[in-house]
Amino acid sequence: KNEVEQSPQNLTAQEGEFITINCSYSVGISALHWLQQHPGGGIVSLFMLSSGKKKHGRLIATINIQEKHSSLHITASHPRDSAVYICAVNSGGGADGLTFGKGTHLIIQP
Amino acid sequence: KAGVTQTPRYLIKTRGQQVTLSCSPISGHRSVSWYQQTPGQGLQFLFEYFSETQRNKGNFPGRFSGRQFSNSRSEMNVSTLELGDSALYLCASSSRAGGRDEQFFGPGTRLTVL
To answer: Is the CB of A42 less than 8 angstroms away from the CB of B47?
Structure first.
């Protein structure tokens, strides 16, 4: 069973700061997902990646398959980025569904 | 393109009752996955249906069951409700099975068991 660890658990930063959230997993995967959850519960998929790097607007996600590690970066952070960011992995073959990290609670202060 | 819809959005039940939650995926998506989110355990995978077949099942008791219809709509049922079943239940749809494709989440059903 894959174990997914995220760090930090909580992060408070000032508007404009560069943010990094980390995710490590224990067993090889076929895909890694970064999700965003706002208060009220709605979850939005930010990225799905299996290698390399993806960028969407101010968000960048990277993954290192050999080190079993992924990072989510937010450039020029804004208060509207305040949310819980969740890492989830799909182990090879997808036999067990997605396994989730506990999430990183991000607060961006103006 | 309409998003994933879930009904009802809120539900209050008492211990011992049963409940059925519904999820309508994005048009064309054949995979529907169900997840339970609680403050203590976070997000946990319940099961996945693809083309009317249960493809995967998480580590939950048999009181949790589901099904998928030919139009890809899915229902999950929880029988003999316990206080610990209080949670946000989310469904997500995708084109391919097994979490190998982007997941589109519904707004969730918040279940409270009294």
So the answer is: no
Q: Count of alpha carbons within 13 Å of B74, Cβ hemisphere only?
A: 35
Instruction: State whether residue B108 sits within 8 Å of chain A by CB.
Output: yes
Determine whether the interchain pair A98/B99 forms a contact, defined as Cβ–Cβ distance below 8 Å: yes
Find the length of chain A.
110
pLDDT of residue A95: 57
Closest to A38 in 3D by CA, of A93, A110, A96, A103: A103
H or E stretch covering A60 = strand A59-64
Residue B63 banded pLDDT, cuts 50, 70, 90: very high
And the tokens for A110? 């103006």
- Helix, strand, or coil (residue A38): coil
3-state SS, residue B84: helix
Rounded to 5 degrees, φ, ψ at B70 are: -65, -20
